[in-house]
User: Fold tRNA (Adenine(22)-N(1))-methyltransferase TrmK from Enterococcus pseudoavium.
Amino acid sequence: MNAKDLSLRLQKAAEYVPQGARLADIGSDHAYLPVALMLQNKISYGIAGEVVIGPYKSAQKQVAKNGLENKIDVRLADGLEAVELADEISAITICGMGGVLIRDILQRGKEKNRLSGKERLILQPNVGERQLRQWLFVENYTIVAEAIIAENNKIYELIVAEKALTTPEYSAKELFFGPQLMQEKNPIFIEKWQHKLAKSERILASLHQSDQDVAEKIEAVTEEIAWIKEVLADAGK
Ligand code: SAM
Assistant:
């Protein structure tokens, strides 16, 4: 394989990996990301961490096929347990999972002392971006970059974060939309939130039909709808 084989989504994640990084890719089905980055000479060392035996074996095969066994370690482990502080990892990619799962992997990694705090985190949640940003905020990370891309009729967000001494006071709205994405409001962002607005309005209508006690849920969805309308109106949509 070469870098061209990466999906647009993984290419975007790759862009944020600093030159010469020691990279840990967690949830590294096929080890595509570390292998492509090593073939580009963009990383100096890689770990491909996988918790499931099938993808772990695929990752091993991919590394061997490219003759990179001395440069990329494939480790069967849960989350950041694939990493030791002695590995001196400088960038961690966690892509293609739910934001809550990514958050839980980071939280367990923190509790098990697998994060030095010096790593750049490059995260690509499929859903649950808000919960992930919330964790980053509470843990004193600054969101240094964000991206939103469309591929195969899906929209993906990327969040790049680094630990800082002082972090911005992100508002609830910024955690919901992404602080940089909501400033930029590019066409893919608009498309995502137009779609979400229609979905939330359908959810609200069905909640109003419910005979359960859904008052809190109605309040939360109503607030989300108001925020989305506000952001879209700011963009002239
Ligand atoms: N990162 C690749 C990508 O973005 O294309 C693969 C994404 S795939 C949908 C998610 C992978 O994460 C699966 O191979 C799964 O086995 C792995 N995974 C899920 N939970 C994990 C965990 N706690 N630790 C390590 N790997 C995990």
The first strand starts at residue 21 and ends at 26. Residues 10, 26-29, 49-52, 55, 78-79, 95-97, 105 surround S-adenosylmethionine (CB under 6 Å). Residues 154 and 192 are 9 Å apart (CA to CA). DSSP finds nine helices and seven strands in the chain.
